[in-house]
Write a structure and sequence with these properties.
Blueprint: E1 5-15, E2 20-25, E3 38-43, E4 46-57, E5 62-67, H1 73-77, E6 83-87, H2 101-104, E7 108-112, E8 118-129, E9 134-140, E10 147-152, E11 158-162, E12 167-170, H3 174-178
Parallel strand pairs: 7-12
Antiparallel strand pairs: 1-2, 1-6, 2-5, 3-4, 3-6, 4-5, 7-8, 8-9, 9-10, 11-12
Length: 180
């Protein structure tokens, strides 16, 4: 995998008087933010500064983070609204049957045909996390004629996700089943 830059979350308001900052993580289950991690803080896509995580408190979507060198309320306030970005290589390792969404965005999507062959359907263009299930958005076609279909990440629809290639293979009839 290339060492792409991954958006982890957004810095919110200061937390306390000693420079801690609330951070909203885009993936509340993420284990990436940890003491010793050096990350970039960005505004409008431009790096403002690199900074090291000193301490992390709390869990879930909104945690409190103490950065090295940020030890006053005023310094913490100056970080409000910045985005927190890491290198892809800083993400924790995952199990063989798992994948990071970032690794399949842009992947070709195939559907198993009636003859057991593969038929190219489109590309993964988005990912959404809903309370009931996660879905990938598959864009079929190009330009104004393109259509978008949300495919739940469930065994009923997905045969395999191969993040190394990258590609997604859908079970036969999956597109028809999810198309309104």
């Amino acid at each position: 995998m290339t060492d792409r830059r991954i958006l982890l979350g957004v810095l919110l308001k200061p937390h306390g008087l000693r420079g801690a900052v609330r951070v909203h993580l885009h993936d509340p289950r993420s284990q990436t933010l940890r003491p010793g991690l050096t990350c970039d803080l960005e505004r409008d896509g431009a790096v403002v500064r690199s900074i090291t995580v000193k301490e992390l408190r709390g869990a879930g979507g909104t945690s409190s983070v103490q950065f090295a060198g940020i030890d006053t309320l005023e310094k913490a306030e100056a970080l409000r609204g910045l985005t927190l970005v890491v290198k892809r290589s800083d993400l924790p390792s995952i199990e063989e049957d798992e994948f990071y969404v970032e690794d399949i965005l842009g992947a070709e999507v195939f559907e198993r045909g009636a003859d057991a062959g593969l038929v190219l359907k489109g590309k993964v263009t988005a990912f959404e996390r809903y309370p009931s299930t996660d879905v990938i958005t598959v864009t079929i076609g190009e330009g104004e004629a393109a259509t978008k279909v949300d495919v739940p990440l469930m065994e009923r629809f997905i045969e395999v996700v191969d993040a190394e290639v990258p590609r997604v293979i859908l079970n036969a009839g999956a597109i028809d089943e999810v198309t309104p």
